[in-house]
Amino acid sequence: MSSKYLPVENPTKSFWLTAEEEEFSTYRSSPELPSEADTIVIGSGYAGTTFTYFLLKEQGINPSSVLMLEARNVCSGATARNGGHLKPDLYYAHEKFSAKYGAKGAAEIINFEHAHLEAMKELIEKEEIECDFVLTRACDVHLHPKSVNAAISNYKSMIKNPYVTCKKDVQIKFGEEAKIISKVEGSPVCLTYTAGHLWPYKLMVAILKKNIEKGMQLQTNTPVLSTAKLADGRYLVKTNRGEIICKNLVIATNAYTASVEPKFEGKIVPIKGICSHITSSDPNLKTPHLTNTYGIRYGGADGDYLINRPDGSVIVGGAKRHIFPFKQLFYGVVDDSTLIPNTKEYFNNYMNDRFYTWKGFPEVADYVWSGILGWFSWSWYASCFALC
Ligand SMILES: Cc1cc2nc3c(=O)[nH]c(=O)nc-3n(C[C@H](O)[C@H](O)[C@H](O)COP(=O)(O)OP(=O)(O)OC[C@H]3O[C@@H](n4cnc5c(N)ncnc54)[C@H](O)[C@@H]3O)c2cc1C
């Protein structure tokens, strides 16, 4: 057990968590923990929640034998603190992936990412879930010559890959057209392709409620402190509220995985990311609505991402240039109760500074929050920035 990797108390409040219902956020199926379950799922984010959704559809599964354990309130990890962007990477990593996995392998990753959009749409429509889901197009803007060249070169290599089935979805535009489509003055090139955005917390809560209606058990504010495999093949799961024995154990703890399984220390590294919600500072003025979602690359991996919400506000994440100098404050860190120096200021006047359709519009970043991502080694992370 490594308690230093457990989620912390009092996380920053994300815009998404304004939909939190006090009663459900601390839901417990029973006052006491059960002593046994067939399957224990640790974590109530995208991974744990969607896993249980599909598990309960399996033949012969007794929903009440499935128990989800969550360290904090319902879905309070990265899923409730992200950018709400459903964005496949259809080209930018193609050369890297091809070099590593060959053309077939690179195509498999790209096709898999692309297939998620349809799968998400299908799930949301089938279950009739209100989560502000919008299917749209992503617009990637590249503002640094290195990033522009990398984008063009990756695009060209991707369209030559015979195994990429979604290549026709990607369109590249240059010069004036790129500026008009992207609405970013300094953009010599832009690439657009199908993407989506949604309110991730609402989607997860809706699925969890459906699972609970079927009988699934959920215990919030119950951090798992350790797990052990017993001689008979079952697992002993120790929590701060007692011990449970189960036949199947699913660990969906993302950045916090070393809190449950110490062997993942240094393999899945928690890093702190920053996001914001930007809207009109004048309640009588409607924002100049953008039609695309965005990836804005200043160079290499030093980029921001942005979604345009159906109410006209935007969610912007990134600020990596401000984060990067503070390695000790974001790398290997699970503390999402604070921000990183200068990141709040980074979002001041953000839209005015980038989009000419927002010039002169009164904007305010009314929410800025942090969240913890599961990441890799420092050398990998730093190599992305070496591109900048
Ligand atoms: C700032 C930020 C912006 C992002 N932007 C985007 C984006 O726009 N688009 C996108 O696709 N992705 C984005 N991501 C990444 C995305 O949010 C994650 O990949 C995704 O949410 C991971 O889901 P998960 O279920 O694996 O993890 P999480 O949502 O983190 O869920 C893990 C859960 O496990 C619980 N847990 C952890 N340890 C324990 C324990 N010991 N006992 C019990 N429970 C435990 C946690 O409390 C948490 O609720 C972003 C992430 C961040 C932080």
Please, what is the average pLDDT? 94
- Distinct small molecules bound, one entry per kind: flavin-adenine dinucleotide
The radius of gyration over CA amounts to: 22 Å
Q: Report on the biggest sheet.
A: 9 strands, mixed
- Would you count the extended β strands for me? 15
CATH-defined architecture of the largest domain: 2-Layer Sandwich
Low-confidence stretches: none
CATH uppermost class of the largest domain: Alpha Beta
The number of helical segments is 11
What percentage of amino acids are in beta strands?
25-35%
The dominant shape is globular
The percent of residues in helical segments reads 25-40%
CATH topology of the largest domain: D-Amino Acid Oxidase, Chain A, domain 2
List keywords for this structure.
388 residues, binds flavin-adenine dinucleotide, 9-stranded mixed beta sheet, 6-stranded mixed beta sheet, FAD/NAD(P)-binding domain, 2 domains, 29% helix, D-Amino Acid Oxidase, Chain A, domain 2
Short summary of the structure?
By secondary structure, the chain is α+β, with helices and mostly antiparallel strands. The chain contains eleven helices and 15 strands.
